[in-house]
Structures are given as structure tokens and as C-alpha cells.
Amino acid sequence: MEFAARYQDGLVADVRDTHCVIDLAAEPVVLVVLDAGSREVIDRWPAEDVYLLHSRALELRIANTSKPPGARIAVTGIAAMRSALSVLPGLVKRQRKEMWQQLRIVVLSTIALACVVFAYIFGVPLIADQLAAVTPPDWEIKLGATAAPEVEAAMTGGAGFVACDSDPNSVANTAIARFVSTAFDGLGSPFHPKVTVVRSTTANAFALPGGQTYYLSALIDAEQTPEEFAGVLAHELGHVYYRHGMRLLIANSATGLLVGFVLGDMTGLSVPAALGSALIGNRFSRQDEAQADAFAAETARRMGFSIHGLVDLLERVAADDTYSRAFALLSNHPLTDDRRRALTALDQPAANPQPIFSDAEWAAIKSMCGAPTSASPAAAASTPPQTDAAPSAAAEASSTPASADPSSP
Q1: Does 151 share its domain with 79?
Q2: Mean pLDDT, to the nearest integer, of 380-395?
Q3: Phi first, then psi: what are they for 378, rounded to 5°?
Q4: Is the pLDDT of residue 270 over 60?
Q5: How far apart are the first and last CA of the chain?
Q6: pTM (2 decimals)?
Q7: CA 103, CA 155: separation in Å to the nearest integer?
């Protein structure tokens, strides 16, 4: 049996009309290509090496692995196509085999992707929790010290890092240090947070792994009472106490490693690279933020001030809008409304309420950076603060978490 076809040898552009017949006597069996007019043998194709190419409707395009890549036999018409398939039954078998191989690749790729997603959602956080818990505090402190220069350069946009009050014995710094010491007193934490107030037009606060905490001046400008300042600071101290920054940094590094493994690119996984991305861009999880808020509420109860100051600040400068509500399920940061309700439920009157800062101390804190920055209370109220209250811990290990903005103090 034979069939008519058009033939190209893959070496020149000429197309020749041919007839193809199977030579069963040859070893191995070959498909003989004959000139349509003279019946001269033009080519011989090993039958076991033929395969189908993608083609138009009512056409078979046949190629051969032992011939040049451009070599083709094109068969058109239903009758000729049926003849070609009967002469070369291996074409259909090979096509089916390739389809199953492709399906297998798709299925295995889907399973692999599902495993990667599962590892990202469940495995990475679990690993981060375990590793953060066993990381020596000294390592975490050194890591925070390594990250500090990068964070300071990033948050000032290259304009230069400016600490508002470099005198540790000033009224303001003494009051803040006393607050931090009292908040951590009796908790058995290996960390001794140090708070630095930084001149900035961004309303934010955040803590690095190991306890170095930054409080940006625009956030102080936006605050109206000592309780608001204390509530944000206590929230950041909660991130330090629970080591959220270290956990987030590990999670970001693990995620980078996972992505690098999947994409086959293991570059850019150095500690500085991990710190650069982790310390500035990500956020703590809702669970971490809730835990830091709970720490702030308990600190307020122990120290005799009301956590409602933090609630007031959130409502004034970080109220939820239509956009944030619509995408709440896609955000790892809790809605302000949810935080307000949780904080209100945790707000317990102190047994011996007392001012957290004296009038003189509060005045000194408010004036640490001189004249208010452009992000004054009014400006802060009209300009939504950053999505997170603090790129903390590496910020929040980058994050924004902690108090990156009052929205997440």
C-alpha cells in the first residue's frame, strides 16, 4: 500500500510530489519515498523513527528523527491520510505514548507545585518557629546589629540617618529607657531593647531581632497622649519578647531558598540579601500581631496605663478603608477594626492607675526631634500610614510589622 505526499529533504526549500511505500523486506523496515512521475527512489526513512508534527486540519505532517530537522512528508486528504496511518501504524502509537508522557509531566509538575505551596504555607512557618526557638539569643543580637546599618540606610532613603536625641541621659531617653526596663522586668527575657527615635516623615515604629527598636518622629507627631506612645512602644516590645523578627527573617530566608530551589537559581541567598528584603518589605502574620497586641495590653495593665490609647491612635490614623476591607482575606495583617475589638476586650483597668510619663517627660519626648515633621497629627490622619507598623525584626524582619505604622504598631 502506498500514499501520495509532498516531500522536503530538509536541506533545500524544494517541495516534490511523491508516493510513499513501505518496504517490509528491509531491515529495519523503511518508508521509501518515490518521485511521483519517474518512480525514482528519492529517500528511505526508517519506519520506526517517524513521528507526527503539529499540522493543519485534514493534513498529516510526518518527520523522522534520523533525518534533518526540516525534512517533512506532508499528506493531505482523508483517503491519503488513512493510507499513511495504515502503512505507518507506529505513528499513532508513538503519538499516544508522547501524549501520556506529556500528561505525566503535567501531573507530576502539578503535584510538585502543590508540594511547594504546601511547604510555603505550612512547612516554612513551622520550620521558622522551631529554628527561632533554638537560635541562641547572642546570635539574634548580632544579627540585629548586622541588619541595623542596612535598615537605617533604607528607612532614610539615602538621606542620612539622624537620631533625634543622642544623649542617653536626656529627660526623654531616660524616660523611654525606664519604660522599656519596667516592661521587661521579671519576664526573664535575654534581650535588653534599646529605643532610638529617628527623624522621619514616615509614621512608623519597628524592632530588629535582638531588640534594637526604632521609633520614627512622624509617629510621635501624630500621637496626642503618652498612652498612645506607650501603647505603640509596648507593641514593638512584644515583637522583641516573642522573637517575631527572628522567626520572620528565618521564614523569608527559607522562602527564598525554596523559590531558588524550584527555579534552579540559588543566587542572592546571602545573609545581607535576606536582610535587605526581609527587613524592609514584609509583615508579621496576624497571629504575631495579635500576640504583640496582647503583650502591649498586659504591659499596660502591669504598668498602670490604659491600652485604649493605642486603640485611639489606630482609629485616628489607621482606620480601615473600602480597599483594605475588600482584600482582608489576602492580607497577612489584621484589620484595624479587628485589632480595636481585640484590644478593647483586653483592656483591663489597672489596680493602681498612674501616669506612664510625667508632663515634663512627655513634653521632652514630643520635642525630641524639634519642630513636628510634615506628618503632623493632621497630616497623619489624612495620609494613611504604612501598611504595617514596623518592618520589624528584620523587620519585623522586615516587615513592617511592628509598628510600621500605627496601623500596626
Answers
A1: no
A2: 38
A3: -65, -40
A4: no
A5: 82
A6: 0.60
A7: 49
d(CA 340, CA 336): 6
Residue 355, all three cell numbers: 501616669
**Domain annotation covers residue 193:** yes
Domain boundary among 88, 106, 124: 88
d(CA 46, CA 51) in angstroms, rounded, equals 11
Q: What is the pLDDT of residue 160?
A: 62
The answer to whether residue 45 scores a pLDDT higher than 90 is yes
Whether residue 269 contacts residue 257, with contact meaning beta carbons closer than 8 Å, is answered with: yes
Determine, yes or no, domain membership for 275: yes
Q: Which residues are paired to 44 by β-bridges?
A: 32
Q: Residues 31, 153: one domain?
A: no
Q: Are residues 199 and 77 in the same domain?
A: no
> Residue 165 corresponds to which cell in the numbers above?
536625641
Q: Considering the chain, what is the average pLDDT of its residues?
A: 78
Per DSSP, the three-state class of 38 is coil
DSSP sequence for 200-220: -SS--EEE-TTSEEEEEHHHH
Same domain for 51 and 166? no
Nine-digit cell at 265? 537559581
Rounded Cα gap, residues 18 and 49, in angstroms: 19
Residues 52 and 155 occupy one common structural domain: no
Read off the pLDDT of each residue in 219-227 and give the average, rounded to a whole number: 93
Residue 57: domain span:
2-88
Cα angle at 388 between 361 and 258, to 5 degrees? 135
Report the CATH number that the domain containing residue 46 is assigned in CATH: 2.30.29
Question: What's the pLDDT score for residue 170?
Answer: 95
Average pLDDT over every residue of 377-402 = 38
Residues 6+ apart with CB under 8 A from 97: none
Domain count, the chain: 2
Say yes or no: 61 and 139 in one domain. Answer: no
pLDDT, tens only, 322-352: 444 443 333 445 667 778 888 888 877 666 6
